[in-house]
Write a structure and sequence with these properties.
- With 143 residues, the protein is an alpha+beta fold.
- Helices cover 15% and strands 42% of the residues.
- The model has no long low-confidence stretch (mean pLDDT 97).
């Protein structure tokens, strides 16, 4: 059961179609951790060209999905309301399995460091309980 639907997510982060890439938030401890989902519909535009005849989820989009989940976590803190979370770095990214149309990505981000307007999240995307993508994502909060 969703804690936040897409309309509620839009109240926290500024992303909109076609670039709002998370469907719902299942768990949220503001500033601490988040679990969100993205159902990869076969008609997603990127599957038409990546790769024709053998569609595979682009890894960079999975990283963006993780970043958007992390932004929901960071921007849910009252003191961060109305701010924007910008990418400041991606470290230790690993792509462990192919993700395909019809899969549901479970996007988990745990905040491991925060200092002023800079933070780091440990991010893991899974499909059916198996790790698909892992990374450390660094963000900077801005107005």
């Amino acid at each position: 059961m969703a804690l936040l639907n897409q309309e509620q997510i839009k109240e926290i982060i500024p992303h909109r179609d076609p670039f709002l890439l998370i469907d719902e938030v299942l768990e949220l401890e503001p500033g601490v951790r988040v679990v969100a989902t993205k159902y990869l519909r076969p008609e997603e535009t990127w599957f038409k060209g990546h790769f024709p005849g053998m569609p595979v989820q682009p890894g960079v989009l999975t990283i963006e999905m993780l970043a958007q989940a992390g932004a929901v976590c960071a921007l849910s803190l009252p003191e961060n309301k109305g701010k924007i979370a910008f990418f400041a770095g991606i470290d230790k990214a690993r792509f462990r399995q192919q993700v395909k149309p019809g899969d549901t990505l479970v996007l988990s981000v745990e905040m491991v460091k925060s200092r002023g307007s800079i933070g780091v999240g440990k991010a893991v995307a899974t499909v059916n309980g198996k790790k698909a993508v892992t990374a450390e994502i660094t963000f900077a909060l801005g107005e």
